[in-house]
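Shall we go through a protein fold together, starting from nothing but its sequence? Label the sequence line and the structure token line clearly, so we can match residues to local backbone shapes. Would you write everything just below, so we can both look at the same thing?
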Amino acid sequence: MSEMSLSSDVLELLHTRVSYPRLESPAPEGALLKRILMTAMRAPDHKVLRPARYLLVEGERREELGEIFAHAAQRSDPSASDAKLEKCRAMPLRAPLVLVAISKNIEHPKVPVFEQEQSVASGLAHILIALQACGFGGIWRTGDMAVNPHVKQALRIEEHESLVGFLYIGTPVGDAKRIPTLQFDDHFYYW
């Protein structure tokens, strides 16, 4: 493959990346999974602090995560309906693998916390692109559970750390929601 062809393929992948809200087994495994996840470690990282750490949740551990979500929802809203609690329990079961992305928020005089969180977020974008390149899919979710203190505590996320999001990973089911073609001039302006 020529360099020009490879560059075109990479650009096409970037231009067509989409999220897949419906995922099923299998998720990538073994060496392929490690290779995909390690793309996150090439995200921009001011002062090379390596602020990211990740928890991989699969199998029955997803049910435990669902219980954590339901308990957190109930603690936040004691009047939460049974339907809402069941929805929380089912959240991690929407994919065979859930990656919990955490920013360690390392104290540094030149690298504020928001830059470290952005580095972790950039890493998630790399993983999403790598998943699609390998025939898999994912969707990055945040919401109430990403900021709930009970969830952080149950996952042993330290007080100074941030939960950046949950990346649901698996094989896409059906077609992805297509994003309309965007126009350069609607988003980029010369200053």
Observations:
- The chain has a mean pLDDT of 95.
- The helical segments are 3-16, 30-38, 61-76, 82-90, 113-133, 144-147, 149-154.
- The beta strands are 23-24, 52-58, 97-103, 137-141, 162-172.
- The CA atoms of residues 112 and 129 lie 27 Å apart.
